Structures are given as C-alpha cells and as structure tokens.
Amino acid sequence: MATISTGDDIRRRADAVLMRLPEVRTWQEPLYRDLHENPELSHQEKRTAGVVAARLRESGLTVHEGVGGTGVVAVLGNGDGPRVLLRADMDALPVAEATGLPYASATPGVMHACGHDVHVTCLLGAVELFAQATDHWRGTVIAVFQPAEEVGDGARGMADDGLVDIVGKVDVALAQHVFPTPGGQVSIRSGAVMSAADSLRVTVFGRGGHGSMPQVTVDPVVLASMIVIRLQTIVSREVAPSETVVLTVGSIQAGAKSNVIGDHAVLELNLRTFDDSVRAAMLAAIRRIVIAECQASDSPREPEFELYDHFPPTVNDDAVTARVEAAFHGYFGDRVQTMPAGAGSEDFSDIPVALGAPYTYWGIGGLDEQVFRAAVAADRVGADIPVNHSPRFAPVLQPTLDTGTQALVVAGLSWL
C-alpha cells in the first residue's frame, strides 16, 4: 500500500490540480448537455463512446476503444506510484423524459434517468485536470468508461474482454454515483452500500379450457396468485429480522380472454440481498414454494426457472473507504455525509474483483438544495423529489458537475 498523504498535503495538491476547474467547466457543461440530449441504451453507447474517446485523446491519454463492446479505457502514466482506477458508466434507460429541460432527450423513449451522463462528464473533467497538473502527483490514472451497467453485465463484459491485460496491476478502484440529495454533498460509508440483485422468470403450467368448465382445467391464474401470496411469507417468516431482503413480484402474465382459462402463467420476480448465504436461501425457498404450489394445484408439468440480470453486492473496503473519507473531510468539510445502505444495485464491483483490487464507492448530491430543503420541511420528499429512474430525474448542472469532478480528484490524490 502506498504511503498515506496527510490531510493538509492532499488539500494542497487538490487545490493545485483543481485550479484549472473553471477552464474545464467551459467544455464540461456543454458536453453534459450534449450527452443528456443524446442518450443511448445498454450495449448501444457507440456515440457516447466516440465522444468520450475524442475528449480523452484531446487530454493526451492513451485510449483503448471497444472493450466489452462499447467500453473505453484510457491510461495516464506519470512516473512510479500507485495505479488508481476511476470508473464511470455510460448507458441510459428506456424511459420517456418528462423534465422539460431545454436539453432534454432527443431520442424518444430513452433518457439518462439515472445520471450516468453526470458520471461520464465528471470523470472526463477529472482526467483532464490530472493530465494538466502532473507536477502534483505520481503514479497512473486509469479511466474506465463502462457500458451496460443498467443490465448488469457491462462490467463483467469489460473484464472478460481483456481489461486486465490493458490496465495491468491496479492498487485501488474508485467510483461514484449521483443521487437525489442536495447538490454539493458527498456521502460515503464502509461495508455494504448496495445490494445484490437477481431477476427470476418463473413459468408455471396449467390445463387450458373454457371458462364455463373450470372443473376440467388447471387454472394457472389461480396457481400464480397462490404463489405470490406464499412468496411474501419467505421474508417475514424465513429470514432473520436483522437481515435486509426485498422480494418483489413485478409482473404476472397469463391468459388472453375473459372466458378462456389459459395453459400457463409467467411470473417475473426481483430479489435484493446483502449476504450470499441469505441470497442462496432465498432462491432455494422460492423454488421450493413454486414447486409445492404447482403440486398442490395438480399442475401437469414441472415449473421452469430462469435466473437472469444478476448484479453483485457493492461492499466498500474498510481501509480504502477510511482513507478516501478522510480526504473528503479534509477537502469538503461538513459537506461529507454518511451514505445510507440501499437496496439499489450496481455492477461496478465486478471490475475490481476481476482485477484483484480493493474499492470504494460513494455518492454525490444532484438536487437544488433549496428545493430539497423545502420538500423536507413540507414532508414531501417522496412527492416532490424525483429519484433515479424517474422520468423527471434532472440533476442540477452546478454544483453537481463541480462536486463530482472534485470528488474524483480528491479521492485519486489520497492514493496518487
């Protein structure tokens, strides 16, 4: 592990590196508007990747394109020292924008509703600042622009497509996310910060027939309904109260007409867990209950299970987090908050796990502070504050971009 810099030293070097932030801001803000106006879905981030690669080359970095499909990796070497990986995700969501922004999405039904355009813009700014201030740090900055975070396989795709060979040894990996908290705020915590997530498609089978003769059928709608009811007892009766688990049945599809009993039903389940053993127990319990209900309904066929869209848990390394958090306190002061653990999910950790590197992941605020405070005072946060994935999610341009850029620089300098 590299020698730990003092808080005063990090603050001094951060001020020196960030001295050119006003210059960077002149292209950052237009670039952000451009990315927001031109969102691209997972695995389709070709234009975004091209914009990213061009900007990185202007900053003088060695650029590798097409990693994991549309991923971009850039390396900035500056003598001997730690090798620090900084990551941003690039993909948008199939959401129709309703923000009313002058730079709202020009692509129907697609929107940067999660803030990945913020992440890309901040990392590009941080990389340029590092490139312009090489007298104030030593080591290697590795910038990873990842596709397909929203479908959970972008990080694994990059790892499987030679990321290790491109970046070599990595001492630490760092990433951030914009959240619906006050702009200018930074939040971080050790340990589990985001859950693992699994989607499960379950198909159960009945015996179709006329609605007037239910006695000769096996109704898959009734069967599916009983499964939904019984699944709710797993969390309340089979999981310890000290564990955090969320099980959602988000979709049931069965039948096509009111007087026709169909022959199958499809249930779409989503599971959120923080512990591997709890995850395994939950998946086993889901399977057990589905099979038992099918038997109770005299289903003519065994049910089918398809597990897909797996996201790993995000568990911050204690030592890395303490080091970055100390640097944040030294630079941001009382703007640093404790990040709450949440049941949202993220695939960033697949990258440091593949590289054998410890990591930490933090949040930055993206909301107008006055609007946020007013919503809190009126007890209307849920109603008045659009959250990630909402069609109204719209981080304010500043201080969001400045804070995200500063956080990446300060965190990087706690190692470099």
Q: Could you tell me how far the N terminus lies from the C terminus, measured between alpha carbons in angstroms?
A: 11 Å
What's the helical proportion of residues? 25-40%
What spatial form do the alpha-carbon principal axes imply?
elongated
Order of helices and strands: HHHEEEHEHHEEEEEHEEEHEEHEHEHHH
Mean pLDDT over all positions: 95
Number of beta-strand segments = 16
- Name the beta content range: 25-35%
The strands making up the biggest β-sheet line up spatially as: 1-2-4-3-5-16-6-15
Main structural class:
alpha/beta
Largest sheet data: 8 strands, mixed
GO molecular function, one term: hippurate hydrolase activity
Domain Peptidase M20 dimerisation: 199-293
Protein name: Hippurate hydrolase
EC number: 3.5.1.32
Structural notes for this entry:
Its EC number is 3.5.1.32. It holds the Pfam family M20_dimer. It is a single chain. By secondary structure, the chain is of the alpha/beta class. The protein contains 13 helices and 16 strands. The protein has helices at about 5-15, 20-35, 45-60, 115-130, 155-160, 165, 220-240, 275-295, 320-330, 350-355, 370-375, 380-385, 400-415; strands spanning about 60-65, 70-80, 85-90, 140-145, 170-180, 185-190, 190-195, 195-205, 210, 245-255, 260, 265-275, 305-310, 315, 335-340, 360-365. The strands form four sheets. It has an eight-stranded mixed sheet with strand order 1-2-4-3-5-16-6-15, with helices on both faces. It starts with 6 loop residues before the first helix and ends with a helix. The mean pLDDT is about 95.
Secondary structure elements and their pairing?
Elements: H1 7-17, H2 21-37, H3 46-58, E1 62-67, E2 71-78, E3 83-89, H4 116-132, E4 139-146, H5 154-160, H6 163-167, E5 172-182, E6 186-188, E7 191-194, E8 196-205, E9 209-210, H7 220-238, E10 245-254, E11 260-261, E12 264-273, H8 276-296, E13 304-311, E14 314-316, H9 318-332, E15 336-338, H10 350-355, E16 359-367, H11 369-377, H12 381-384, H13 400-413
Parallel strand pairs: 3-4, 3-5, 5-16, 6-15
Antiparallel strand pairs: 1-2, 2-4, 6-16, 7-14, 8-12, 8-13, 9-11, 10-12
Helix pairs in contact: 1-9, 1-13, 2-4, 4-13, 7-8, 9-13
